[in-house]
Structures are given as structure tokens and as C-alpha cells.
Amino acid sequence: MAATPDDILRALADPERLAIAGHLARSSDAAAALAEALDLPLSRVRKHLNRLVAAGIVRLEDDRRTYRLDAETLRWAAEQVGPPRDAGLALGAASEDEEAVLRAFFLRRPSDRGPRQGVESDGSCSSGSRSSSSRVSTTTSRP
Questions:
Q1: Cβ neighbours of residue 54 closer than 8 Å, sequence gap 6 or more
Q2: What does the pLDDT look like over 90-142, one tens digit per residue?
Q3: What is the pTM of this model?
Q4: For residue 78, with 0-12 CB atoms within 10 Å meaning exposed, 13-18 middle and 19 or more buried, which class applies?
Q5: Is 5-78 a domain of CATH 2.40.50.100?
Q6: Where are the chain's structural domains?
């Protein structure tokens, strides 16, 4: 790989280049079709494609007109900058230890977490000690 993970992340930091990569993740396409699909000038799309190709994120097919996303480059960069993962565990997925922590916190019953405070679906405020039908009135004093 010619590019470093830092180069790859910098290339994807531009919103237009990220949109191009996102489009190419769904299907390979020519520069003109990308420009039309993303409503961008063709010259700008070509400039972005050159940067994505230089970073190794996008490859030019043998026909010299069709671009495709190189998922292996993205996977490699994610492995370099992300936490170590077991083989076969999808990037972004929680490991068994991480999942156990999430289960312990988020899957507890609401009553186990203490009184619920917040905004009810009807817009009224609630807490564990007050019913949702009670209203809190505030007054302001004027001099």
C-alpha cells in the first residue's frame, strides 16, 4: 500500500470525496455518471477521483473509464488505526467483552437505573417523584 492510514483518512475528510466513495461503495461508475449522480461539476469529480486513486481508496478499471472502491484499502486503514479485533469480527462490531458491558448497562430495566427524569412524549416534564400530569409553574418577578 502506497498510502498511509493518515493519507487515506485525509482523502476521505472532504465531504465531496466521501460522497464519491459512498457512491462507489454501492456500485462502480464512470466519472461523468458520478458527476451527474452527485450534482457536481465533472472537473471537480475528476480532481477528487485523482486524489482518491492516489490514496488507494479508488481503483480505475481496465476500461480506463470506470472507477471502483477498493474495500481492502479501507479495511487495512481501519485495522491500522482502530483497536485490535478478533479475526472475523466486523469493523465497528462490539467484541464479547464490550457487548457484555453494553448489555449490563443498557438492557437493565428502567426501574433498576433509578428514577427516570426527562421529557415525556406529550412534552411534559417528569421525574421519579412526580406524575407526568403535574405541571411546574414558574413566575418571574418584575421590579
A1: 3, 11
A2: 555 666 776 776 676 666 555 554 554 444 444 444 444 444 444 444 444 44
A3: 0.58
A4: middle
A5: no
A6: 5-78
